[in-house]
Structures are given as structure tokens and as C-alpha cells.
Write a structure and sequence with these properties.
The structure is a single chain. This protein is α/β, with parallel strands linked by helices. It has helices spanning 13-24, 50-57, 71-80, 95-98, 121-127, 163-187, 220-229, 299-305, and strands at residues 5-10, 28-33, 38-40, 45-47, 62-63, 84-88, 105-109, 117-118, 132-139, 149-156, 203-204, 236-242, 245-258, 268-270, 275-279, 282-290, 297-298, 313-314. The strands form 4 sheets. Strands 5-2-1-6-7-9-10 form a 7-stranded mixed beta sheet, with helices on both faces. Strands 12, 13, 14, 15, 16, 17 and 18 form a 7-stranded antiparallel beta sheet that branches. A two-stranded antiparallel ribbon has the order 3-4. The longest helix has 25 residues, at 163-187. 38% of the residues are buried.
């Protein structure tokens, strides 16, 4: 049984949870690769990735290449002499990188592959109203999230669960699955399964302004799923219009109330404590939202400082 020498590649908070579990299970981490520093926020201060923060805290060897094919980086990678690379929420690797270690390179993906290949699997599972999801480890090949699968573990999705809550639970599940995968590789006991291909496979498209906008003409359950699938980040959005005023609103927490009514779709109905939008099959009750230039707030907090006329509409 050959001792593993691991290079870990990742960038966001989700990857930190996995890296920490590998570290706490006493695997040898010979290097950590993460995104280059970049300016962020209004002051454009240089921001470190979550993985870099962790690597510095644990005094792990750190590389931040801008070009994964750069010969200087490739030589630094070879010198680390890893026999396995573990990838979690990083970027597409060139073949020269993923083929380098003796035991290959495996990725943890936050879906039950082949479903939800792509950039935002946690969000899209909720947006599409799935009742279950999970994590999959697989050996990387030359396409995105298509390689031979090693292990997968399933988890149910709560009826009103948000992407943020599911993210945290999948990070824990993913950590367990990665450690089980490492144990199989270390024992030389890996059995892989080729992913099936079908036109019906759902994709986890990159989130953008267009696919995060609420369409109030859709069924209420779909709107509610969009909101929770994008909460807390990047957040669903729409416009509120009242007389000559218009606001670009982010919405974080809703419930769908099925009902028959005669209101025009998009009508904003409010009392001093309640805010809801009429949709074709009921009402979307809003509990948490953000107005431009304001902090995120509860509906009663908002309605303390603003009132809507009978003409108010969500667009």
C-alpha cells in the first residue's frame, strides 16, 4: 500500500471544508493550488480565496498559477512529486496537469452525476424542484464532469431548503465521500463506473443576470424554487414599480400559497407586516429582501419605512 502524496486544487468555501477533512485525517498534502488573488469590493482591495486563507493558516505549500500550461508552474508541480491530485470547485485542467500523478486526478462534484454537470449544481437542483441530490467523485478526463465515477452519496432536499443550507450539508457529505475515495485509492481497490449519456440529462448552467431574474408569469412553485435555489447567493431579482418609482430588488426568502384570486399577475399586496405578489395560481409571500443601497431586511423591517399603493407591481 503506497502512501498518498496529495496536491489539492480548489478555490471557494465549499472546497475548504473538503481540504480541512483531508488534513484532519492526516493525509500528506504536499501542495495546494488555488486561484490568483484579485481585487474585490468597492475599495478594490486584494482578496484571497477561501482555500488560500486556509493553506496559509495551516502552513501548506501554495501555488497560484494564472496559466495552468505555463512551464514554470508545471515544473513546480512536478517538484511536489504528488501521486494523486484532488480537485474541488476549481477550473478545467489541461491534460498535462490531470495526467501527471501516478494515481491520477479525481474531482468531487456536488451532484449525482451524470445529472447537473457544470458550474452551479447545488443551485439548479433546487431551482428544478428536485427532492434529492448528492455528491460524486470521479477521475477527470478531457471534458467537464464526464469522467469515470468512483463513489456517490445521496441526500434529500428539504421542501423549502435554500442553496446556502444545502451547500453546507453537501460540504459535509462531500468530505466523507472524498475520505472514502482516498481510502479506496490507497488500498488499490477502486472500481469505476462510466457515466451514461442521454439527451435528458440536466445541466447546471453558469448563473447569470438573465437566469436569476424572476418571471412572475411562471407557476408559483417554480418561482419559489428559483428564490430558494439562489439564496443567499447570487439571489433572485426583479423590479418593483409603484407610480413613477422603480426599484431593482433582490429576494431571499419566500413561500408559495396556492389560491384562486382575481388579481393581475405581479400585483404587490401589502399590509404593515405582510408582502405578497399575485401569481396565476396563488401568491408568493416574501419574508426577506433587499432594496438598492440598503441592507438585506425582513418584510416587517421594510414595511416600517415604505408603503405601496394599489398600483404597485412586480416586473
Amino acid at each position: 500500500m503506497e502512501k498518498l502524496r496529495i496536491v489539492f486544487m480548489g478555490t471557494p468555501e465549499f472546497a475548504v471544508g473538503i481540504l480541512d477533512t483531508i488534513y484532519r485525517n492526516n493525509y500528506e498534502i504536499v501542495g495546494v493550488i488555488t486561484a490568483a488573488d484579485k481585487p474585490a469590493g468597492r475599495g478594490q482591495k486584494i482578496k484571497y480565496s477561501a482555500v488560500k486563507e486556509y493553506a496559509l493558516e495551516k502552513n501548506l505549500r501554495l501555488l497560484q498559477p494564472t496559466n495552468l500550461k505555463d512551464e514554470t508552474f508545471l515544473e513546480e508541480l512536478r517538484i511536489l512529486n504528488a501521486n494523486l491530485q484532488v480537485v474541488v470547485a476549481f477550473r478545467m485542467l489541461p491534460e498535462v496537469v490531470w495526467r501527471m500523478p501516478k494515481f491520477g486526478t479525481f474531482n468531487l462534484h456536488a451532484s449525482l452525476l451524470p445529472e447537473y454537470r457544470g458550474a452551479a449544481p447545488i443551485n439548479w437542483a433546487i431551482i428544478n424542484g428536485e427532492s434529492k441530490t448528492g455528491v460524486t467523485t470521479f477521475f477527470i478526463d478531457d471534458k467537464i464532469d464526464t469522467g469515470a465515477m468512483i463513489l456517490n452519496d445521496e441526500i434529500s432536499i428539504g421542501e423549502n431548503e435554500t442553496a446556502g443550507a444545502l451547500h453546507d450539508r453537501l460540504m459535509v457529505l462531500g468530505s466523507e465521500t472524498v475520505v472514502k475515495t482516498l481510502a479506496l485509492i490507497e488500498k488499490g481497490d477502486v472500481k469505476t463506473k462510466i457515466q451514461s449519456e442521454s439527451p435528458e440529462i440536466k445541466t447546471a448552467y453558469k448563473l447569470n443576470r438573465d437566469n436569476c431574474k424572476i418571471d412572475w408569469n411562471k407557476p408559483g412553485a417554480e418561482i419559489h424554487n428559483l428564490v430558494r435555489g439562489l439564496s443567499p447567493y447570487p439571489a433572485s431579482w426583479c423590479f418593483f414599480q409603484d407610480n413613477d418609482q422603480e426599484w431593482n430588488i433582490k429576494i431571499y426568502e419566500t413561500l408559495f400559497e396556492k389560491a384562486d384570486h382575481d388579481y393581475t399577475t405581479g400585483s404587490i399586496l401589502s399590509t404593515k407586516k405582510e408582502l405578497k405578489i399575485a401569481v396565476k395560481d396563488g401568491f408568493i409571500k416574501i419574508f426577506n429582501l433587499q432594496f438598492p443601497g440598503k441592507k438585506r431586511m425582513s418584510t416587517p423591517e421594510l414595511l416600517n419605512g415604505i408603503s405601496f399603493s394599489e398600483k404597485a407591481v412586480a416586473l
